[in-house]
Amino acid sequence: VESGFTWFLRYVRLSCQEDSLPATFGNLRPLWSHYTSGVHQVEGIEVLTSSELEAVNGTDVRLKCTFKSTQPLSEETVSVSWTFRPLGKSLEKSIFLYHKQAYPPKDETFKDHAVWSGNVMNGDASITLRNVQFSFNGTYSCQVRNPPDFQGFAGEISLRVVQKVSFSEIGILAIAVGGCIGIVLLILVIYIVVRIFRRHGDDMDTEMEHRESKDQVL
């Protein structure tokens, strides 16, 4: 039905351009102009996101998504949807919806992980992923609608989850750094002590020479 209606509008548009337009179709010219002018007046929502983001495994990360609309913002009209495409795959799945309220994900991968952290009245459609896992690697798309202002392009964020540094690795690093600092301090102390003893020895030699020269004079 939709394709047939589209064909009909295209036919009417072409017909309206003909000079030999019948009276019946000529009456449709104002109607066609009304619909086409309405379509051209609709503008797209501008969505802004970070292109790439990195998070440590087991931490929380905020997927920031802001938007600007030519229409007034309202909780009644603004709707937000987030989709996820796993790394190396082409199939997307919906993970979060917001319209008047947040609808937590039912997907097992993001259940109890994806939470709403935005404010549509301030042009913020962000969500937060808690306790990120390696399965969260992929591309996240933020889509915003505020009729009659519809979004032209979705904002995309490529998330990369990296290995969490273990306590043993931190301990080894701390020991290595502490050992280096300790060695430097030990060398510095030895150097200072040697300098003090040398200076003290030089003073003693000078004093002895002074006494010997004094005894010879007497």
Question: Which features characterize this protein?
Answer:
3 domains, 3-stranded mixed β-sheet, Immunoglobulin-like, 218 residues, 38% helix, 6-stranded mixed β-sheet, 12 strands, alpha+beta
Describe the structure.
By secondary structure, the protein is α+β, with helices and mostly antiparallel strands. The protein folds into 3 domains: 2-41, no CATH class; 44-162, Sandwich (Immunoglobulin-like); 166-218. 38% of the residues lie in helices and 27% in strands. It is built from 4 helices and 12 strands. Strands 2-12-10-5-6-7 form a 6-stranded mixed sheet, with no helix packed on it. Strands 4-1-11 form a 3-stranded mixed sheet, with no helix packed on it. A hairpin with a 6-residue loop joins β5 (79-86) and β6. The protein is rod-shaped and about 115 Å long. The N and C termini lie far apart (132 Å). It is a single-pass type I membrane protein. Residues 30-160 form the Ig-like domain. The chain crosses the membrane at residues 170-194. It holds the Pfam family V-set. It is found in: Membrane.
